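the two lines:
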Amino acid sequence: VNPVAAPTTVVIETVLVVEPEVLIRSSIAEYLRQCGYRVLEAANCDEALILLQKQDLQIDVLLSGVSMPGSMTGFDLAKRARELRPGLDVILAGTVERAAEAASDLCDENPLLTKPYDPQIVVDRIKQLLAARARRSEQD
Amino acid sequence: MINVTPIPQTAPETVKVLIAENEVLVRFMLADVLRNAGFQVFEATHAEEAIAILKTMQVDVVVADLQMGAVKDGLVVVNFVREHCPGTPMLLTYVLAPPVDRCSFDAFFIKPYRPEEIVAWIKRHSTAIASGTKDVLP
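prediction for all of em together
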């Protein structure tokens, strides 16, 4: 009897990239897509919040710059995002100077990615966060 | 200083579509459907971003909303494409019937349109798009 392989469900994690510079946004978004992630793009915090408020939209990780155009910073966006989606993984990217402003409880670990960043470092960070989330789920 | 990582290039046969649309949910839904159809999609939130992308890479199709914000800056994209990317199909979207000269676009979609209509248009013209012979488009 030939064993029939059980159907496998492929889970594609979704990353919301918030970045005002279009060429940076496009390049990191494409890099993440080629690494297998589904990527949503937002040019500013307002666009990001519209997507985050759409609760039927799966978003696993928020990747945002710290300095953003408009009244909200990346920190503000991260706090609002966590209110809307508790447990959301957040990666912020900014200059070294802004690291001091990072709230220690904002991100799970290594609260700030220093700009300019290597896209592979972003992927590594995403993998770490999602692995930690998976471990937490198993413990629960 | 900000490092800009070169946008990764995919296989040459992948049709590259640039979307210029300021409404994030409209842009997201169109981009999602186009990507699921196998196209490589680049997103711009206004004309300036669209032109920045067009200056850095060659795309096969441009889909632009005629009015992004207060002015009809979709026409800025149209003019740039006509001048600098001749032969690139230009698809326009707008809430009303086309208020611009028919020769300035290759197809027009009145909002709200179904993203699948745009996928179907691109697939219908894929041969002409791949060969760069837009002039044969009906």
